[in-house]
Amino acid sequence: MKSIAFYRILIFGFFLLTYNCSRSTDETTVVLRLDGEDWGIYFNNNADILSNEFNANNLDITTVPSNFRNLNRSYRGAIWIRKSFDITTEQHQKSLALQLGKIYQSDEVFVNGVLIGKNNSAFGKDPDEFAFGRPRIYPIPHDLLLEGENVLIIKIDSSLSTSAGIITGPIRIVTYEEALNGNLYDSLVELIFVGFYLFIALFFFINFFNLRDKKEYLSFSILALIFSAYELSKNEVHFFLINHFVILKFIEYSFLLILPYGFIKFIQDFFELKPFKYQKIYLLTQFFFIAVFVLVHNPVFWYNFIGYWDIHLLVVIAYAIYVTFIKLREQTRGSAIHLLALVYLLYSILKEILIERGYLNSPSSLETSFLVYLILMTLALRFQFLMMKRKLQNRYERLKEADSLREKIFYYMDAMISGPLKSMKDKLISYRESTQKAKDKNLVKEVIEVQSSIDNVMDDIIELSRLEVLKEVPFKEQVNFISFINEVIPEDDITYSIKVNPETEIHNSLDLINSVVVRLVDFPPFKEFNHNDLIITQDLRGNVHFRFLLFHSNPKVSQRLFSDLVENYNTLTPIKVKWAIILEIVRLLGAKIDFKIIKKKYLKIDLGISAIVPVSELQPVKESPSTSQSSVAKTQKEDWKVTLKRIWKFLKETEIKIPNFKKKK
């Protein structure tokens, strides 16, 4: 029940997040969207672009957001971007703010030539030393904006090797409240993802303590924990708790550096692989990088290093895909799900690298892809657990069957053998104390007979105990019924006739069918009857019936045997054990057995077994020509007693003898 509840929460949360993770912005709060391809760009350390006399027509045109480093990789200096925008009278009456996406590295923002923000600080009063990669919100003074045309100029300074500019959106002028709510909403969505990562990590960590041999549970929980810590250190909310960019950036990069090793370790535990040759060196290398970051207390250096380091993540994913593909060819359980999750994760990592370098202007899907990866692998791990549980349950059932078998054998041995053993003991004592040689010979003979009876009943006890613990037949086969039954019925032990469609087939345990037919034919009480005939017929549904018709001149014999077959035994005898074996075989075959007394002298036993016959072949069995002629000539009504005698005589006369068949038991 706990697993079902866990899956319901997991799936519900997944669809809740993936269905609509983006907040729909009220269009009345969006004053002006500034992103686009009409921004002017100026590579120059001089601030002459701020002058009213500057000719904007001389500027090159670029797209914002984008990575300006891709436009001029050799340039290291101030990069200016400029855009004109119009404000209506209605918009001018609102409290507005400029909302920018992630900026690399530092920025100064001017509206109509006046500074309104610098490096994440409104109006540049107390700018942060480092704030790259963080979104910006700069309030715009009401008196600064003009109704009509206004000019926005942004100065970008970056010593980062791979990034310079406004890399991501949004870039717009909105109400100040909407700008704050938008950033807060994005942060809360990321926190919800982090909550799911932590929940999954805790779930498998607890399960690991119950299943210590499942190393993949521990490595999976550690992987989810590392990624949740990495995402948490990137979230804007933590600046409300610790407003220290360097410390938080160091924590973020530290978890990022050890994340690939945790990913590799989980894959190895999941597929039960040995570590590759230099795996420990790889882990020590990552810790060495962390130590270097401690010594080199410069976030710009850290960013530049990670900008080249993250390329090797593609190698890690490629290794994972290679291993998974091999396991998929080996038909390893869970490999298909893992390969599907890896493909999406690879796509998201490639996309993230392109976004960070400014080659792609698109929302990041890294958090979503990793959540999908964790959910899919959670399902794969739980599926493996259920399969393992099923194997253990089957093993437990087999052990339980063995215990039950042992108990039943001991029970039957006590019921069936304790008496003969006591009798044997008494006879042996008499033999030892006897002095008469003639009497000694009789005692020895009696002891041998008791021993022989014990040997015979022991085989039946073991067989009955084995059948009682079975819940279903081990395996089934499908064969033609006629060819099979001809090999089953013992030769000369019984007269029988077969009236079954030649196309009939049976799909069941052939050994058990063979056993039950032979045991019925050889059942000791049947030997007392004067006649024992078997008619194998077929009903309208195609099922096969073995109908034994036993006749005894003394009605009491038939009645006594009928009572013995249907009564619940309080005491066991060798005959009752043999009959119990027959009933157990009937149960396993899914068959039915009925008993009936006819005219006090005839005992009818009907054993019905399911069979298969083509629908077109389900026709009444054809009668012989002699029977057809006699039935046509018989136009007058007969008494039912005469009819029964006539049918019995016909069956006796049309019996089919099948010679030279081996006797099977």
Automatic annotation (TrEMBL):
Record-annotated 7TM-DISM receptor extracellular domain positions: 187-381
Xref: Pfam families: 7TMR-DISM_7TM
SUPFAM superfamilies the record matches: Galactose-binding domain-like (SSF49785)
Gene3D superfamilies reported for this sequence: Galactose-binding domain-like
Keyword Transmembrane: yes
InterPro entries noted in UniProt: 7TMR_DISM_rcpt_extracell_dom1, Galactose-bd-like_sf
Keywords: Membrane, Transmembrane, Transmembrane helix
Regions crossing the membrane: 191-210, 217-233, 239-261, 281-300, 306-325, 332-350, 370-388
Highest taxon listed in the record's lineage: Bacteria
Name of the molecule in the record: Membrane protein
